[in-house]
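Morning!

This is the sequence you dropped in the shared folder:
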Amino acid sequence: LLLYLTFRHAGEAMIVMLSLPFALVGGVWLIILLGYNLSVAVAVGFIALAGVAAEFGVVMLVYLDNAIRARTEDGRLELHDLYAGIMEGAVMRVRPKAMTVAVLIAGLLPIMLSSGTGSEVMQRIAAPMIGGMITAPLLSLFVIPVLYSLWKRQTMKLSMDEETTT
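The structure's back. Tokens below.
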């Protein structure tokens, strides 16, 4: 509901929601690799990872929308403008995304390497986040722009069909 209210369109909200399971895959892989069982702490880590992954998706869509809007002069969107805008919007997100991932991993790595009191619980919270920080940025840099271009092409095709029938 919040995503729909943010974008005012169900298509963009669905792109963000579809990206969440793919972003959580890295967390699942690291949990399995470390031999952790599903627990409340692991679930809390996945909830935090889902929040970061949704934020990645939302910000990527905002950048893509802004880049395409800047290329649309008279309200008409051509296919080459769509692809150029998607490329421009995605490239503008590479550095901020890399910094976000680096800061998150640098902040969580000491938790994973600690051995003090309560470290077992904290490691189970941090593990999904660290694993997800491997797959979530890759997903939002490659998969979300592709899904967005497919969705925009479909809406362009629908609007072109409406114009030809009138």
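Headline: DSSP finds six helices and no strands in the chain.

More detail when I'm at my desk.
O.
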